[in-house]
Structures are given as C-alpha cells and as structure tokens.
Amino acid sequence: MRTIIFLNTQKSGSSRDAIKIAEQLGFFTILLTDREKFLQQRTEFPDIHQMIFVDLTNIELIRMIIRKQQELGRYIEAIVSFTDPYVYLATKLNDEFCIGRFSTEAIRKMEDKILTREFLQDLPYTPFYLTYNGLDSTSTFVEQIKHPFPLMVKSPQSAGSKDVIKVENNDELTSSIHLLLSKYPEQPILIEEYLDGPQYLVETLVLDGNVHIIAIIEQEISQRQRFIITGYSVLQSLDSRLKENLQMTVETIIKAFGMLTGACHLELRLINQQWKMIEINPRISGGAMNRMVQFAYGINLVQETLKVLLGLSPDLTRKWEKNIFTQYVIISTRGILERVTGKNRAYLFPGVQEVYIKPRKGALLSAPLSMGQRYAYIIATGETSDQAKQNAKNAAKEIKFHLKPI
C-alpha cells in the first residue's frame, strides 16, 4: 500500500492541508504525533488513516515504528513534516527509508536560527547578532553589548513569534535571557538588532537549484507583548526595481545554503531600500498560507511540494491573479470560550472567500504570546489590494468571542 508518513501536524492550516491532499492522491496516511489530544479527537481526522502517539524526540523509536510499517506491507514513499521543528528530522528519515530528494543539510541549517545567522554572517542581508551560550554571567554578557537598543531576544528553535522578545534596556535584556534560560536551560540564546521597516514574506519552491518565487506577501504586525502578524496582503505588483532586488536577495540567500530542491519561506524587512532577513524556514508558512496562495493564483503549494518530494513534476503556473488579504482575529482578554458569533454575517461581506474559527467551546483563550493564539481568520478578495484589505477587515469585525472570565 502506497504510504506517506507525516511527523506532527496542526489541526488546520498548511500542515493539515498536506495530509488531506495525500489522502486525495490515494496514499495511506500515517501521522506520528506527540499530541495526545489528537487521539482523543480521533474522529475529527478522517483523512488520517493511522495515528500513532510517540515521543518525537525519540528518533530510534520512530525508526522502529517505520520499520514495523514496512513489515506490515506499507510501501513508504515519503516521510515529511510541514511543522517546526520536525522538517529536518523528517527529511533525514526520508533519506534513510525512501528516495531523498530534498536538500537535507540545507534544511538542517535553516531550521536552527543560530546556525542560519552563522552561515550567512558575511552577507549584507544579515543583521547584527550575538549568541549567549551561558559561559559568561548574564551581567557580564549584557555589559559587553555596545549595540543600541531596542534588541530582539530569541530562542534558536522559536516558531510563530513564540519566545521572541523585544527589549528596550539592559534590565529587560537580562530578564528576557533569564526567562528563556528557565524554559530552555541547555539552549543558547540569540540576540539581534531590532529592524524597523515594512515586513514581507516570500514563499519559494526550489527545483534543481532554480529558485521559484511563488508569492510575495506584505505583513501587518500587531506589537503587543509579542510580535503577532495579523494581516497578510498577497502582492500582485511591486516596484520593478524593488522586485528585482528582492529576487536577487532571495536567490543569493537560498543558494548560499546549497539548497537544490525543497520548499522554504523567508521573512525580510526593507530598511533604507536594503533587504534584511528576519528568518528563513524550510517549509511553506503555516496557518492560512496555502489557502491564500490558492485563492490568489490557483496554485496549491502544499500539493506541488508533495509532488516534488515524490519525484513528480510540479505545476507552478498561475491560473489567475487575484488581490487577496487575510485578516486574523486576536483578543485582549482572558477567559473560557462560551460561544462565537458573527461567522455567518462575515460571509455576507463583499469578497469574503473563507472564514475560519479555530477554538471550540470550553477552550481557554488569552491575548497572544505566539501566532498559535490567533483565533480566527477571514480571507477576502477585491478589485484592488486596498479593497481586499478593507473587505477582510470589515468582515473580521463581526467575529466575537464570548468569554467567561476566570
């Protein structure tokens, strides 16, 4: 039986889209997950044919499970992950048990933010950074930093704005380092300069060393306790000189890693007409990204990525070009969800393509400390990018989360 094994997934978004597509393509789908809650909600995952609860840090146990599946007659054609931090592990296992087609070493470097900075330190797209490895006292380390504030403090394994903190002075820097040390005592900590400028996300698929830019998305950021991206505008036009510079920047960065085949997305900020890289990740963005690209261009990027992994030729042809804006909904209070209203009304607004509500009744909701705490999104189109944006924002105002205070 033709089989694809997935390491981890979210309940919705790009990673879940991948499993649904694999099932539609006729594959037997196996999910290895460390989220016990998914097994309790098993009926909500009809596209997953077999779900196995496993410690995803136990690589030998995962290898045993894969061999057992082979003994049962499963013909495993691919092992893949669309979530952090399992992309490299899945690619490595894919090399062992299947035909490895993605650039494993490049993915390893991309997945670790400190390795990324070290590898690209001589390129002009890399901002100022330092690494705290715990050898010196925190006070000694902080006193040695001469770069002006604000600075950013990050865990090298951070994803979705989790464990990314903006600091304005030495006291905040010290307390943030201590916070991350308490959460990840054996990990180094990354300190970077704060970059102030418009931020863009670039989705790419690399085929035989050729970098294909699939979509360029301008991001809107809500600066609360953390940097939370709440708006995404899929750009249909960009100043020609700026676009040419962006293409060169993206190609230079990806080729520096030696990536010949694979998917990755970059987040960059434009500072005085110079691109600076915030981060790079060896996968498509999560959340609604796959749906955004579909609505904008008719390209199912997750499907085409799977096809490349399986040795098939992807179709990256744009079927159409539409102005798309996605508005995420966050909240500012904390409580137990009693009900959500406004979804049907949101669909009545012009241009609305999709309305998604994430949490269910009884869930604990709060102001966001990571992108995982965005609780709804609306994807809308319009005659212009501004109209698409306004349509999405107007519809989003209808979504109300009714909470029981705690």
Describe this structure in words.
By secondary structure, the chain is of the alpha+beta class. It has helices at 14-24, 36-40, 59-71, 87-97, 104-111, 113-119, 138-144, 170-183, 240-256, 289-297, 301-309, 343-347, 385-396, and strands at 2-7, 28-33, 50-53, 75-80, 129-132, 151-154, 164-167, 189-193, 199-207, 210-223, 227-234, 262-271, 274-281, 323-329, 335-341, 352-357, 364-365, 376-382, 400-405. It has 13 helices and 19 strands. The strands form 4 sheets. It has an 8-stranded antiparallel beta sheet, sandwiched between helices. Strands 3-2-1-4 form a 4-stranded parallel beta sheet, sandwiched between helices. It has a 4-stranded antiparallel beta sheet with strand order 5-8-6-7, with helices on both faces. The radius of gyration is 21 Å and the shape is globular.
